[in-house]
Amino acid sequence: MSNPYLLLTPGPLSTTATVKEAMQKDWCTWDHEYKTIVEQIRQQLLEVGCASKEHYTTVFMQGSGTFGVEATLGSVMPSDGKLLVLINGAYGRRMEEIAKVLRIPHLSMEFDANMPVDPHAVERKLIEDASITHVAMVHCETTTGILNPLEAVMDVIKRNHRKAIIDAMSSFGGIPIAVEELQIDFIISSANKCIQGVPGFSFILCRRDELKKCKGRARSLSLDLYDQWETMEQDSGKWRFTSPTHVVHAFKQALKELAEEGGVEARHERYRMNQQIVVEGMTQAGFKAYLPRELQSPLITTFLYPTHIPFTFEHFYTFLKSAGFVIYPGKLTDIHVFRIGNMGDVHPKDMDRLNAHILRYVGESQYAN
């Protein structure tokens, strides 16, 4: 059965029929064939992140991306450490909330939602507060679609001898990231984002020497990153607790399709084209993007509510859903916005169709007015 609509959201995303088909069989969690697949995926993810097996390893964590973030923060931060959280959207704020709940000593630096993290301000804070041991940042903040300057921030973190925890939930696999070259210590993403799998687990690429320091630090039994890694290492791909076997097989297929598309660079180009077509069409229809082009990621775009037509998000959403597209509400609290994603099994021809329906919506709204 074909999908009734395309998901133009930050995730879950529209997946291919072949990814969905990979979930049609039942699998055993401790079977040798299954564990071999897990090990293959762990290595493939290092390759996607341009990280060597000598210095990095991949750990899976059951649950959504937030589970992976919480597992990382809760397992990596030592009792005498201090976390600096960089915030310019809801997902940076979520890391702050996790630190509060886990009673991790921390402080936050906040930037406006329409401004990227400022590396110079971060460096001043690191020089000013020598007690900071780790820095956490969201790469692509899907609250707005802004892309934070990962390379510049990593340069500051490493120059000042701190450890980096990067939430790359919405960018890993869709934007080239040279994990080892940038010396990222822990980088987190999810099966259902740019790799174009389905929801069910997150994954963390970890520097081996830093992960080894995490033994006994975890603030949770099930979200213990070190113990999960140790089990996978000692038992060749076994998860400590029941793993999402169907999701893992779908992810294996999704990684195969990423390679067939031409890798991260080719997928990044497709997403970039999708985003460009959407912005051009929305501009033609009288909508305005929230962010300037130079700050915009190719993954999701935030648009202001229009003033040239009668508009409610609910009516616009229902109209587009009936035409075969699902978009996303805004996440800003001080301004009315909505979001259109470009990730997943979505192609430029789909964006052209979307634009045609949006132009029809505007025309009908103007006529009704």
Offer a few descriptive terms.
369 residues, alpha/beta, Aspartate Aminotransferase, domain 1, Aspartate Aminotransferase, domain 2, 2 domains, 7-stranded mixed β-sheet, 42% helix, globular, 2-aminoethylphosphonate-pyruvate transaminase activity, pyruvate, aminotransferase, PyrdxlP-dep_Trfase_small, pyridoxal phosphate
Principal-axis shape: globular
List low-confidence stretches: none
Strand order in the largest sheet:
2-10-9-8-5-3-4
- The tally of structural domains comes to 2
Describe the sheet with the most strands: 7 strands, mixed
Description:
- Helix 10 crosses helix 11 (about 265-285).
- Strand 6 (about 140) and strand 7 (about 145) form a beta hairpin.
- The chain has two domains: about 5-10 and about 265-369, Aspartate Aminotransferase, domain 1 (Alpha-Beta Complex); about 15-260, Type I PLP-dependent aspartate aminotransferase-like (Major domain) (Aspartate Aminotransferase, domain 2), CATH 3.40.640.10.
- The chain has a seven-stranded mixed beta sheet with strand order 2-10-9-8-5-3-4, sandwiched between helices.
- The model has no long low-confidence stretch (mean pLDDT about 95).
- It contains 13 helices and 14 strands.
- With about 375 residues, the protein is of the alpha/beta class.
- The chain is globular.
- The protein has helices spanning about 15-20, 30-50, 65-75, 90-100, 120-130, 150-160, 180, 210, 225-235, 245-260, 265-285, 315-320, 350-369; strands at about 5, 55-60, 85, 105-110, 135-140, 140, 145, 165, 185-190, 200-205, 300-305, 325, 330, 335-340.
